[in-house]
Amino acid sequence: MKVHETSIAGLLRIELDLQRNPDGWFEESFHRDKLAAAGMPPYEVVQHNVAYFESAGILRGVHAEPWDKYLSPSAGRVFVAIVELPEAKVETFELGVGDALYVPRGLGNSFCTIAPHTVYNFLVNEPWSPERIAVNPFDPELAIDWPGEELSFTEKDATSPSLAEVRSQGV
C-alpha cells in the first residue's frame, strides 16, 4: 500500500496492492496498520457501506459529511471530484480496482460512474446520519468537467445550492 498526498490538505490517494491471478484478482482493500505505516492518519471504521451502480453516468454529490471517508471501488470505475469548502478548490481522480481515497470530514465528495456494474465501498468512522452540506455538482464556480454525455442524477443533488449560497450560510 502506498499513500500519496494531494493538493488538498488531508486528502490522500492510496494505491492498494492488487494481486492478479488466473481466476481474477485479490486486493487487501483496507488494512489499518499497513495504511498507518504508509502515512494515513489513525482511522477506526464504524460502518461499511457498499453501493452498486448498474450503468455508467450515475452522478452523486457534492456532499460534505461530518465523518471521514475511505472510498474504494471493488468493481468498475468512478470519476471522483473532491471539493475543499468554502475555497472551491477541486481535485479529481479516476478510481478503479486497486485505488482508494481517504477523504477527511468537511471536504465535499462527489462521483460519477464511468463503467457499468460499478461497486463502490464507503468506510466511515461515524455512523451515517442525514447531516451534511450539499453543493450543486453543476455549479460553474466548481467547473467540474463530468465525464460522459448522459448523466443520471437525483433532483435533490441537481437543486442543491450553489457554493456562493452555501458560503452565505456561514460555511
Automatic annotation (TrEMBL):
One of its GO terms (cellular component) is cytosol. The record marks W128 as: Participates in a stacking interaction with the thymidine ring of dTDP-4-oxo-6-deoxyglucose. One of its GO terms (biological process) is polysaccharide biosynthetic process. Transmembrane segments: none annotated. One of its GO terms (molecular function) is dTDP-4-dehydrorhamnose 3,5-epimerase activity. Belongs to the dTDP-4-dehydrorhamnose 3,5-epimerase family. This is dTDP-4-keto-6-deoxy-D-glucose epimerase. It comes from Kribbella antibiotica.
